[in-house]
Design a protein that fits this description.
The chain is mainly alpha-helical. About 60% of the residues lie in helices and about 0% in strands. The protein contains ten helices and no strands. The radius of gyration is 25 Å and the shape is elongated.
C-alpha cells in the first residue's frame, strides 16, 4: 500500500463548492482524472510506435508461434520469451503477477519468516568458512536460536523447512532481497514492456489494454421477422 501524501491544490475548494463533495471524493476524482490522462497519452504513444489507428489493432500483430509439438506449456514459454506485442505482454503480466503473489515454496516461507539469529548457530550447522560471504544482517546476538525458530516456523505455517535449507538460504540472499521465480518473470516482462513502449506497465493500464483488445463483438444471430 502506498503511503504517498496527496497534495490538495486550489481546485479542491472550488470543486467541493460546485459539486458538494468531500475532500476524499475530490482526491478520488483527481486520481481518476490523472489516470484517464495517462491512459490517453500511453495509447497515443503505442499507436505512434506501431503505426496503428487504435490500440485494439494490436491484435493484428500476434507473435508467430512455431510448431513446437503438442504441449501447451511450450507455446506459453515461447510467447513469454519472444513476444514484443504490448497487448500480449500485458496479458502475460497480469497472469504472472497473480502467480507471483500466490507462489509458495520453502524459500518463500524462509524469506518471510526467518529472523536474524546468533552467528554461533551458523558456525554450528553451517561451514564457518562461508561467514565472510554471508550478510551480517542475518546475525543478531541474544536472538532466538536457529533450531528453535525453525521448529516454530514449521508449527506456525504447517511446513517442513530444515536448518540446512535456512543455512543455504542465508548464504544465497541478503535479508529482504529474495524474489520468487514468478516475481523474476514479472520483472522481465515489465522491463520488456518499458523497452517497447517507453513507459512502465501499471495494473490499470494493463487492464485497459486487454479490455480494448478483447472488446465484445455484437451478437449477429439472425432474428426472424
Amino acid at each position: 500500500m502506498s503511503n504517498r501524501t496527496i497534495k490538495i491544490g486550489s481546485n479542491c475548494e472550488r470543486h467541493i463548492g460546485k459539486y458538494g463533495t468531500s475532500v476524499e471524493d475530490y482526491v478520488e476524482f483527481s486520481k481518476r482524472t490523472a489516470r484517464k490522462v495517462t491512459i490517453s497519452k500511453n495509447d497515443t504513444d503505442i499507436c505512434t510506435k506501431f503505426r496503428i489507428y487504435t490500440i485494439s489493432h494490436l491484435t493484428n500483430f500476434p507473435t508467430e508461434l512455431p510448431d513446437l509439438g503438442i504441449y501447451e506449456q511450450e507455446y506459453a514459454d515461447y510467447l513469454f520469451k519472444n513476444t514484443k506485442n504490448p497487448y500480449e505482454i500485458a496479458k502475460l503480466w497480469i497472469q504472472v503477477k497473480g502467480d507471483s503473489e500466490g507462489f509458495v515454496s520453502n524459500e518463500t516461507i524462509i524469506a518471510e519468516h526467518l529472523p536474524a539469529f546468533p552467528k554461533e548457530d551458523f558456525e554450528r550447522w553451517g561451514d564457518k568458512n562461508w561467514l565472510t560471504d554471508v550478510s551480517k544482517s542475518w546475525f543478531k546476538k541474544d536472538s532466538i536460536n536457529l533450531d528453535v525458530k525453525v521448529e516454530e516456523i514449521n508449527t506456525q505455517v504447517g511446513c517442513s523447512i530444515t536448518i540446512d535449507e535456512c543455512i543455504e538460504f542465508v548464504k544465497k540472499y541478503r535479508p529482504n532481497t529474495y524474489k520468487n521465480p514468478m516475481q523474476l518473470k514479472k520483472e522481465e516482462l515489465e522491463a520488456r514492456f518499458k523497452e517497447i513502449t517507453g513507459f512502465n506497465i501499471k495494473d490499470y493500464y494493463a487492464e485497459h489494454l486487454i479490455k480494448s483488445c478483447e472488446f465484445s463483438i455484437l451478437d449477429t444471430t439472425e432474428v426472424p421477422f
